[in-house]
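We emphasize that the prediction below concerns an isolated chain of 330 residues; any contacts that depend on oligomerization or on bound cofactors are therefore not represented. The input was used exactly as deposited, without trimming of termini.
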Amino acid sequence: MKIKTILTAAVLTVLLTVPVLAQDLPGLKVVPWNGHKAATSLTFDDGDPSHLDVVVPELNKRHLHGTFFLIANKISREDDWRKILLDGHEIGNHTLDHKHASELTPADEEAQVVGAQNVLQKEFGIAIYTFAYPFIEISPGLKAQVAKTDLLARGGYGIYDITPDQDLDWMNIPSQTTMTAYPFSTYQGWIDDDFQKGGWLVWMIHGLEGTPWGWQPITKNMFGQILDDIQSKDMWVDTFVQIGSYLRAEKTFEKSVPQKSGSQETWTWDIPDHFPPGVILKLQVASGAATAGANVEIRQGDQKLSPDAKGFYPVNFDLKKLTLTLLPKN
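Result of the prediction step, given as a token string:
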């Protein structure tokens, strides 16, 4: 009996000290949409006064954030636009003058995109990361200029429920356009489809009730119904740049091939051009037998990351490196 006990203890010792092989490491995967089932961004064009008078109060009342694409040479109420930045909203570039693409020479294209960005950044003292094409007209010259200055650009056509597995043209993100004649059931259908597919729905909205000149205005009541329906579901509602940069970070991380050594694997990545600082990417340990009987430690430099209540690890994308180590279970 004593010999059997000694042998059993020896076997257990061997089992517990068998090194973790690189191929047994569990890996990490990105948590889509910041931990939500789906995502949506509400974007508004042209700097319409109704955005300040109707949209912003409705969004603030619900603690939601929107993106406002301003025409750089047609801005009024500058102080009011500055205030929305303090509430977490985004200002994006909608060119200098909102001209048709067919009207522009190559020099005009540069001025309409780069010149407008310079005006907006000087006026508001912030970096501008996103662009929206006037009339949804995307010429090669305009698109090339946008790629020089912006992380993302909103177009208007394509697959509207953008899922993380799609290959995307970052300079032409599809969007759905609200129209005066549409009943609420139309918008409800957009929201339901997006939620069921686990996608990202980008809205293009122009005038609201009371607009002096906004195109295809919708009523305040309709807008409120849209917001309430969105909030009734587990959807991440945030600015075009916030959700778009999370998705770009996700795609970038997924292309990173981890270097494996013993009980460790390390990811490194490059940050895309025109990328905003401070993006936090949520990751989780891939499930599987590899983690059985072991503790996982995830670090960025000297900082050990702690999971939240759902087991998601907040990763600072700016640091461009991450290490996972399997530790023996105590």
